[in-house]
Amino acid sequence: MKNIVLIGMPGAGKSTLGVILAKTLKMPFVDTDLIIQQTQNRLLQEIIEEDGIDVFLSIEEKAILDLDVQGSVIATGGSVVLKPEGMKHLKENGFVVYLQLPYMEIEKRIRNITTRGIVMQKGQTLLQVYDERVPLYEKYGDAMIRCMGKNMEQITKEVKKLWEGIK
Predict the structure, then answer these.
(1) 14 annotated ligand binder
(2) So which residues are the signal peptide here (predicted)?
């Protein structure tokens, strides 16, 4: 059985939706950010600050490549699309759903930009991160859900309908 893989910007609601979706569909839930924190015994932001972005992305990619689950809802980190091998692995046995939000909404939702563990180069703005990643989310997504103005229940119903259409 395929996985449902949630991708999108930090603040798009991947982890929150993932939990609700997993309960609704009676599937296990996996959060790759939590896997990274558990295996590294550090917060994402600590890894980025102490080891740098390249090391963090390698750790994230290894966590993805080591992931061996079926029939699960997987919430990924926003930077997962930066490593093609990791995305290839997720797509091999996954239905990838891009949770799309306009930049202004992402900006509103992210209050803790310096502590959240967002992969950003020095001097890079959140808008630049958004502009860099959106084409990758669109490339890798098998489906896109426009989340603006919708609550989690509505988004869950949309993903469930898509999922039931491909099963």
Answers:
(1) yes
(2) none
Is residue 15 a known part of a binding site? Answer: yes
Residue 160 confidence class, pLDDT cut points 50, 70, 90 = very high
> What is the CATH architecture of 3-159?
3-Layer(aba) Sandwich (3.40)
Q: Which tens digit of pLDDT belongs to each residue from 19-42? A: 999 999 999 999 999 999 999 999
Q: What is the pLDDT of residue 105?
A: 92
13 appears as a binding residue in the annotation: yes
Distances (CA, A) of 136 to 18, 64, 161: 20, 17, 24
Name the residue ranges covered by the structural domains of the chain: 3-159
- 54 known member of a binding site: no
Query: Is 78 within any annotated ligand binding site?
Result: yes
11 labeled part of a ligand binding site: yes
